[in-house]
Each structure stands twice: as structure tokens, then as C-alpha cells.
Amino acid sequence: MKRLSRRTLLRGAGGIALGLPFLEAMAPASARAQATTAPRRILFLFQANGDETKARFPVVNGETDFELGEFLKPLEPYRNELLFLNRLHRRFYELPEGQRADNHQQGGSSLAPWPSGQGSFPIGGTEDQTIGYVEGPSADYAIGDRVVKADSSIAHRHLVFRVGGRNNDIWNLHSHAGPVGQQNPVPPDTDPFAAYKRLFSFESTDPEATAMLARRLRKQQSALDLVLEELGGLRSRVSSADVRKIDQHTEALRDIERTLSKTSSGGACSPLDLGGEIKVYDDANHEVVGELFFKIGALAFACDLTRSINFNWSGNTSNRVYRNLGLTEGHHDLSHDSSAESFAKIRAIHAHLWTLNTRLYDLLKATPDGDGTLWDHTLIVHWNELGQGDKHSIEDALVVFAGGAHGYFQKGRLIDYGGKTSFSDMLVTCFHYMGFDDVTEFGDERLRLKGALTGIQA
Predict the structure, then answer these.
(1) Phi first, then psi: what are they for 434, rounded to 5°?
(2) What is the per-residue pLDDT across 112-145, written as a single tens digit (0 to 9) for each?
(3) May I ask the CATH class of domain 40-190+286-447?
(4) C-alpha dihedral over 204, 208, 212, 218, to 10 degrees?
């Protein structure tokens, strides 16, 4: 059987193209008789405004004997597949005043641990107009850059998704391209319809083909119908296991298209009038929009379009009102109220977001990939711009590693660093997981401490 290219595309009428998942037929001939080995992938996953630090782990008797607090309870079924890294320090106050922003803003750039440069954004509600974006790349960009330099067939250095409004400024941009010494924030995809079209139609250069895809989506007609004949021919060339992967892949694409066909976000989708439509930028729809981005991200991984994703449930200081939880106050407003009542609401918000995060876990677990699943071959890095919101604290960051991550880490543990290890050090560990062991430091020297975390690898 002839080997298929890893970048094989299914092309139909008008030049529409769709990527394929990793198939046995794409492995070198010498390896086809054995289980295929999938690449390493990383996904940084952000939620805003800090939590309640003392409520994270109410009982701790040791690294493997600890209780998950109320808002972390949704993770209980997965605890043996998670690694909790508690009280990492961001060290912003080692920077002089002219090189650091408000803790929300500097914290939102934690994946890019560099000083802030000059800008024109008021900081913390003051008249200060001097501090701007950080001057250096974020880990998602830098890791993706390493990946594409090692393998030029990878289409996207990284993908950046955010659930929420269109606005992009110092308050809500978490990804940065650098290089060191330069401000270069990366605007995220905020519309799943546009992201899906961009990624999975490969932006055909034929305007008629692009228009055809848009028309079919508006009419709830699948773009996959354009390539079904090609799929039929491909099935006859691959193994039964590959056929199952193709079928699951196409059904996943259809699942996304079914949801997108109900989505109205302006722009290309504005002519839609299906009734009961979903508005992408309505806070009430954060759940379905987030899940769409999860599905799109999983497909991008399965197609090997990228190996680095930066996903954000919102921007910094998000003031989303979670009416689905019976709340009437904005998230950021609640995070600055130290009352017991507000902390109860904060815990409810985070429990809700952690529950949504587990849908990504289940999606990755259900997606075949190489010799296992996407879950087996992905590291998810959960993070927040603050430790606790009402204190704007930076010495008590909670990071959770999730995903099989090729068995790289010892899971089911809680490691408390007591503020003596930096967030930047944790990012070096992410480079090492991705295979870049030569990276011994990342970020400004004032924001880092010991290099890669030790004692957590399997």
C-alpha cells in the first residue's frame, strides 16, 4: 500500500480542501506493522480573576493524599490523571514600576514572562498611560515556533482562541509573538465560524470556492458533501482501522458544522435567519462557543495543523455575568468583594468552568490518535492571571497539568511550591515536555528562579 502524505488533503469541487486525521497509512512503511507514534501537543487553557486560595485543597496529608475543594470537585473523576502545581510565584515586583502593569494585565501575560513596554492604556483605572504590552514571546508562540522550524509541514505555529467579545487590548490579549524586546500581541480567533472556515477550508484562493463554502454553511449543507466521492476512493486504499478514523473524523466535522449552521456572529454569517440562532458574543452562549472551539482545536490537533493552542474562556478582568448560575453580578466585580457571599459565587463560577473543561478531556479521550487518543498525546496547562482576585495576589498561582502527555509526568499528585518556584520555571518544563530540552530558561531573568521543575517527571 502506497504511503499517504501527512499533509494529504481531500479536494472536491471548486478546490475546497479538508485535512485528515493521522492514519496508519501515513506512517513510514517500516513502522506500519507496529503501533503508530503520535506527536506531542500542548494546549494552554485560561480562566480569569483568580479563585479562593484556601478553598483549593482544604485537607492535605501528602502529595497523593489531599482533598479537592468545592470548586475543583468536577475534577475528582480525573484526579489520577492530573498534576496540581500550587503556589507558583510570578515575581512581577522584581521589575521596576515602569516595566510592570496592573497585576491583571501583567498576569494575563504570564505565558510571556517579560517586562512591559511603553503603551497608551490606562492601568488599574488610574491616569497612568505609560505601560503597554509585554516585550517578548509567550510560551504557546515560542513552542509553536520551535515545532514549525523542526517540521515545516505543520501549517500553523499556534492557534489562539478566546470566548467573548471582539475587543483586543492590554486587558485581554494572552498570546504574544515577540521577539524579545518587542511588543507584538497576537489577536485571537473569537468567532468559531470564521476559525473553522479559515482552518478547514485552507482559505481557497478561488473566490468562487470560498463563496460556495459560505453558501453551503448558511443553507446547513455540509462542506464535506463536496469531497464525499474523494473519501470513497480513499477508503479503498487504507486499512479498516483507518476507515474507522476517517468516519469518526468526518462525523466530528459534521458535528461542528451542525452547530455552526445555527451560529450568527455577523460578517460571513450575517444572512442567517434560522430562528433561535446562537450569537457568538452573547455571554449567555459562552458554553456552546467554548465547546465549539474545543472541537475545532481537537480537529486541528488530529489533522496535525498545529501542535500548540492557546485557549481562553475570556480576557483578563472578565466581567461576564453567569446568569446560567443564577448570578446577576459580573465575575470581575465579584472577585474584588471579599465577603463570604461573593466567595461562594466565585467558587460556583470556577466549578462551572472546571466542569466545562472536563468536556475537553472527554473529547480528547474519544478521539483516536496514533497508538492511543489525543488525550494520551496532549498536555493541557490550566492557568489564571491571579492567585486570588480580591488580593490581586501573584505569589500563589495554581497550575493544573492535565492529559496523558505521553506518560511524561507523575500524575495524581499535589505539589505545593510555597511561592519558592516561579511560573516561568513551570513554562520551561512545558518546553521540555515538547522535546526541547535545550531550553533551560524562559523569560526575563528577574521573573525566573530554578529552571525546569524537578521531581514531577515519570
Answers:
(1) -75, 0
(2) 999 999 875 544 445 555 678 999 999 999 999 9
(3) alpha beta
(4) 100
